[in-house]
Amino acid sequence: MRLFLRAVFAVLVLGISVPSLAKGVSETDLREHIAVLASDEFEGRKPGTEGEAKTVKYIAEQWAKAGLKPAAGDGSWFEPVPLIQRGRGEATYSFNAKGRKLRIVSDEIVLIGKEAEYAKKDLPVVFTGIGVKSDGSVGADVSGKLALVLFEADNAPAKMKSPRARREALIAAGAEGVIFVGDSQGNWPILRRQLLSRPIGLESREKRAKLEGAISTEFAVALVTAAGRDWDKLRAHAKGADYTGEALGIDADFNVMTDIYRFNSSNVIGKLSGKKKGSGAVLYMGHWDHLGICAPDDATDKICNGAVDNASGIAVLTEVAQRLAKKRHDRDIYFIATTAEESGLLGAYAYADKPVFPLEDIVISLNVDTIAIAGRNSKVAIIGRGTTSLDATVEAVARKTGRAIESSTDANDFIQRQDGWALAQKGVPALMVGGSFADLDLMQKFLGSDYHGPNDELTDQTELGGAAEDADLHIALGNYFADTRKYKVTKAGE
């Protein structure tokens, strides 16, 4: 039954009551789960590894113990998510200008094809600056050509700052190849490492050029200089807001072999069945994956354990499930632990494209991610504020649990970086609620230090006070939104 997701505000604020939590979630409760999920034994929980097998098994066992029932499409806990990895294989290349082969002394280039083999001769090379103009459109003529793109894009419009967004815009404009130029003294090592780490993709949604890759600034300078051009002048031109790019008078020949590996990862899905069929569902979600073994072989610590990101979120979901399972609610309550969030919300997108229950039945989706940041008594922020009709309701529930509200929209800076975004684009009322993103200075401190590195480990200093309070808040939200008397929705047309 399709539900029109419009709150009946007669029951808002003054009509909200939240039952007291007889036993709140403790820091110890959360620590026990994080200690397992972020242990070296789980090897950083990268999809397609032994770490994944241990992770999804642990989650299913804990959710079964909590009282959930398996709810994947085949009746198990595990919903398959077909993924693909591409790794660098053998590659030969040459660049030519005015009939002569250019001599490039740098070898700082990484090339990866869309298919297992890519061969092309006389591919024209176009320098595109950051790739897009101030309105987000592609100014350069890249159709059937190789686009050289600056990796850093401080002057790009907000929605196009990410390399992925600019790459996809160039592909949509017809680019046959897209190669990013990384700063040799800054982001080139990061860019190179990303490409060599066999990045994971969701093949059903991939937007890839036939050839993709990266070169260092040193390589770019050598290339354009050998062709008689001035790199500094090209960079200066690229700073213009509406730079339209320019052909370099260079053609390229490529023969690129790519190692391709296809495999199934898993979203873990559990359910608490409600009493009233057709009344909708509450959905909790959080990603289980992290980066796996992420440092060089000679590093002292090679594992990105992901204690905060996002073993903490899975720990909260597990404790919330355990407490919500103590009674039967009106609405169904689903829990989904998604795969491959770190690779671009892939598990969430896979679920949004092929849900096990109708997306239109979801009265609220609550994503839990990177939750062990803030201490106790932190304000509650809403990622997704202003995008649904639920802000006032969520705030009223939060206040009933003793929490203050962060009323700004600053946390929306992260709206596209979390799994709820995949559902929001399908019209689902999807929010992230809690304290971690209420203090963005505190969040940025984490993002600039332990985030996505071997130091994101569980220690005695890991802050779990705010996470415990956020867990209690999510229990209160579940109790409220799963109750058809407290939160009412109307059918379309009523």
From TrEMBL:
Keywords carried by this UniProt record: Aminopeptidase, Hydrolase, Metal-binding, Protease, Signal, Zinc
Coiled-coil stretches: none
Bilayer-crossing regions: none
Domain Peptidase M28: 267-459
Listed GO MF terms: aminopeptidase activity; metal ion binding; metalloexopeptidase activity
Xref: PANTHER family: AMINOPEPTIDASE YDR415C-RELATED (PTHR12147:SF56), METALLOPEPTIDASE M28 FAMILY MEMBER (PTHR12147)
Annotated GO biological process: proteolysis
A Pfam family hit: Peptidase_M28
Name by which UniProt lists this protein: M28 family peptidase
InterPro entries membership: M28_fam, Peptidase_M28
Signal peptide from the UniProt entry: 1-22
Source organism of the structure: Sphingorhabdus lacus
Gene3D superfamilies: Zn peptidases
